[in-house]
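We include the pair:
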Amino acid sequence: PGDTHDAARVRSAPAPVTDVARLCVCDLLVAQCDVNCCCDPDCSAEDFSLFTTCSIPVVTGDSQLCSQKAAVYSLDVEANPPERIFKLIDQVNPSIFCIHATNYKQALYLKTPEIPTPENFDQLLEKFGGASFRAEPDSWDLDTDAQNAPETNETSRYEYGAPVQTEDAFLRLPSPVVSSWCSDANPAGFLVNQATKCIRSVSVEKCDSIQALSMLFYINSSILAVPKSSQMVNITVQSIVVQAVNGMRTLLSSSDVLRLPMVLDELCINAVLGVNYHITHTDTGEIIEAAAAFVLGAISKEALSIEQSFEISFTQENTQPVPLSGNPGYVVGLPVRAGFQPQGYPFPAAFLFAALSSNKHSQLTILQSTSTQDCLAAQGARAPVLFGYNMISGCKLRITAAMKCQPLAQTLLDVLKGQSFPEYVASFGNSQAQDVLDWVPITQLHISEQMISYTLQSSCQIPVSLGIEVKWTKYGSLVNPQARIVNVTATITTTTLKQLPSGRERIIPITSSVVFTDISSPAEPSYKAWPTINIKLPFDFFYPFV
């Protein structure tokens, strides 16, 4: 009887893990309608009327399942205007080797692999170094009642761009909508880093009753850890900065006490001028921490409006936040990310540390021009290399007869390359430091084969320019191509400096430049040209015509 009962439980079909009605593989553009993508939720009925075909007519989940739902899309061209037709059908897999029940929970989501380090390498080698290995699940859950629970898929995790829900509505991130005035109806999207500024109408006499000027307005609602769940995450106050009327800012030593707006000496004090949210989440899309940093200020009686700034950022737990320059491709105007290979490579964990430590912001930099144009004074002043921007900078070096060649050449090299010139550049704007294959090595060249000579004779070689060429290409779909860096070359140009007579001086220019080159191949035509036939016709082929 026990075996029969267990067999009955196995034969019961589980709830589908993937909702095919919400699955869309051709949806490439965020918040925009993709052409001929009939499953794109961003497309309206007007968009569907302009489609010529459905690029993906059938959408299914796992093709190895014995039975599953399939979403079928088509166009009714006879309707006026043409409209999209959607059907949800049952699809049966005729294979005798199909999967009947997906009851192995660990296989239903992607688990972040453990990164090899010098500390755990031997342990991982012992576990996975053999010809075969197996990982037994903690438990085999055949409870179909739990699998058939309603709204299981919708409450499991946050998805990219989904509004961050609170106990009353959603997390507000005020922003200008039609005009520059603040609108509190803008929800914060999960994993969408935003920064907004808007104008708020104020009245000093009523400042204590204006909700948008109070700290409580931004932290009084707890955030749902996952959508439609009962687990709450409170928003804590991370820091409070007080801004005086003259603009001077002071960081308070304690942020435990809420400072509410109030009228004092014809001033509205403790009014919220800026809020910076920081959300920490897991790799499975669950929010675990939320913090807010405030900027409070005083408003004079004459002011009729103030400018407020709002910002939100997301960080995955157990990771160090790194500023990105695109997702995935580079965005024009954002810094080129860089790093260097440390000792202990090929362990990717060490590579992560190096990429973050190459300079303050993990960026490729060049010499920054100063108003004095003095190279010796400009040492240490660096400007980030911005993707897509050709740049040139420089300074002037005053050389006297008393200068020694060796320290002069080394100083100029430090001015051109910086104290720690990176060895690698991220190929994408969102390349993770532990993904070693996503980093492009920087090729360093010298125009002259002769290396820099530190001679004290009548002449010496000193570097006078650094030229960086960044080659990039368009990667991915032609509809939404992504910028990807494929090659970086840094060229040092040296010149021969002859020794000056005593009492004489000489001024030479020192320059740095960056050039971006698009090496994308042109798109191939959709048709194929007719082949060329290379044959020789007989001499009398056109006889009797000439």
Q: What stands out?
A: Residues 1-14, 137-155, 347-360, 449-457 have pLDDT under 50 and may be disordered. The chain has three domains: 20-92, 162-322, 334-518.
